[in-house]
Amino acid sequence: MIIFRINYKYIIGIFIYLIFFQNLTQAGVNNETHYTISFLQPQNHYVNVEMTFDSRGENEVSVSLPVWTPGSYMIREFARHIEKVNAYTSDNSPLEIFKTNKNSWKIITNGPGKISVKYRVYCNELTVRTSQVNIDNAFLNGSNIFMFVRGRLSDKCVLKINLPKNWKNISTGLKKISNDLYESDNYDDFIDCPIVAGNQEILEFTVSGKKHFICMAGKGNYEPAKIISDFKKIVEVQEKLFGDLPYNDFTFIVMLVQAGGGGLEHKNSFAVIADRNLFDKPERYRRFLGLISHEFFHTWNVKRIRPEVLGPFNYDSEVYTKMHYVTEGWTSFYDNVLLRRAKIFNDEEYLTMFENEVNDIMRFQGRFKQSLEESSFDNWIKYYRQDENSKNSQISYYTKGALVAFLLDMEIIKATNAEKSLDEVLKLLYDDYKKNPSKGYTDGRIKELSEQVSGINMDNFWRDYIAGTKDLPLKEYLELAGVELINTTADDKITLDVEYTYITDSVIMINKVYEGGSGYAAGLNFRDKLISIEDEMVTKNNLQSVLDKYNIGDEIEIKIDRDGLEKTVSVILKTGLPRYKMKIMDNRSDSQLKFYNKWIYG
Ligand SMILES: [Zn+2]
């Protein structure tokens, strides 16, 4: 009996100890990785990083840097910019550390205790997926900068930022603990928050009680009040579509540069790069707002509603999905629709954006070579690595995805007599997400919900336009909403259907040759330089007027310089590749108006 009592107490004791120790481990520093960044040589583009974590008694621990960054589907080998990697114990004694593959290092520990890994990163590439540090400011993408401890992606991350003396501001989506201390629940979320440090202007507005910060980094000819007003409208119209704002606060990062562009989505922030002087040019400003609307839409579509492989992430290699026609295609459809819905665009401005997407796909032969699903799956080696032949051999899942999203929207509107639209499918996908945020959707879920909302079978739609390369029936579907699609090629000037680079005013080099055009049929090549047409020398200034002397059906002799040798190519002039315009029909029927309004206003 006594023995039993002693054992009983002993077992209880162990039990209490285990619970206590377990809790301590869960809440304590053992489950955290701490990072400190400092800018010791910003003028030479370096950020210094120190990461500290517990060995947890393991004899060996490995750390790695991602090879790609979520949202930008290309292996970029960020580890190539890492220098001077060293590991230390808590009393600063060196530990053995060596590389085990291109992006990983192994540390031989001294048993229990803290380990610090110190290194620096060269950052001199300002794009939305890379990093730049210079004397004035820094833009850091976590995937380029912060290593992770292998097997500990779910550990909390804590970041201390040591700013140079004359830098005042930090903009990031990370949770702020104090002025220079930030944290994140896990590594995925940690590197999902790019950081801007410097003296950027920070604009602010509130929607539904949630703070929105606009970090305007760099000089620009923008008017703060106009930026705030337009960004706010974008937030409000998207909140109305989805029903809520799924974050505590949001940081818009706008990097202003002399020339450049692009955007990258994150969970409660995004980064875009834009021309600093675009703000007084209406057409370019509309495209900028299209980018803002696009990246903000990703707050739901891809950062929350997402295919299974897009979070949690595998940072060591490519992750494949056929679903980018939803992640990027639907986003590219809604970015402009919602700007029309918010009344930032008028009908004509909206349709001009739509026209560009139609022309990007419907002019080129790539549409018969690659389906949406193939384009999505192969984006690592094709869409992200385009060359001079890409328009002939592939499509963009952004633009074709947007066109097919429109067709699907009209298919649902037609089937339900404008009771429902693609909006309902999105809302159901968002409901799915809210029920189980940790898991993305399966490939079949999109079709299943589209059929549920429309009440019709979509086998053929998916076979033809998503898995297949059947030409898109845009003309018929636009007509349902009273919009005319007009091929204006007949009005165009004589063309070889090639693109030129003007090296100087008198040196014209071909940089693309489009299949279906007269230049392609005659065998003009990428890098050929035009010398003369029918013995008349051509320059940047006279090329079009020389071509316009001839008619469709004429055969002309073009002299070229190919790889330093002169050659003559005979070209039979053909009608140019199609070029489309859109126009709202006069006297639209009630049904056309109803369908149009459902498409635009949901
Ligand atoms: Zn996108």
Describe the protein's architecture and organization.
It is a single chain. By secondary structure, the chain is α+β, with helices and mostly antiparallel strands. The chain has 3 domains: 33-277, Immunoglobulin-like, CATH 2.60.40.3650; 324-487, Neutral Protease, domain 2, CATH 1.10.390; 491-572, Pdz3 Domain (Roll), CATH 2.30.42.10. It is built from 17 helices and 28 strands. The strands form 5 sheets. The protein has an 11-stranded mixed β-sheet with strand order 10-3-6-5-4-7-2-1-11-14-13. Strand 5 and strand 6 form a beta hairpin. Helix 5 (282-297) packs across helix 6 (324-341), helix 6 (324-341) crosses helix 10 and helix 7 (347-362) packs across helix 10 (399-415). It is globular. The N and C termini lie far apart (76 Å). 40% of the residues are buried. Mean pLDDT is 95; it is low at 1-28. The structure holds zinc ion.
List the helices and strands and how they pair.
Layout: H1 2-27, E1 32-38, E2 46-54, E3 60-64, E4 82-89, E5 94-101, E6 104-108, E7 114-122, E8 132-133, E9 138-140, H2 142-145, E10 148-149, E11 156-162, E12 169-172, E13 175-178, E14 181-184, H3 187-191, E15 195-198, E16 201-207, E17 210-217, H4 224-242, E18 249-257, E19 262-265, E20 269-275, H5 282-297, H6 324-341, H7 347-362, H8 372-377, H9 390-393, H10 399-415, H11 422-435, H12 444-454, H13 459-466, H14 474-480, E21 483-487, E22 498-502, E23 508-513, H15 518-522, E24 529-533, E25 536-537, H16 543-547, E26 555-562, E27 565-572, E28 580-584, H17 590-601
Parallel strand pairs: 1-11, 17-18, 18-20
Antiparallel strand pairs: 1-2, 2-7, 3-6, 3-10, 4-5, 4-7, 5-6, 8-9, 9-15, 11-14, 12-15, 13-14, 16-17, 19-20, 21-28, 22-23, 23-24, 24-25, 24-26, 26-27
Zinc ion is lined by residues 294, 298, 328, 331.
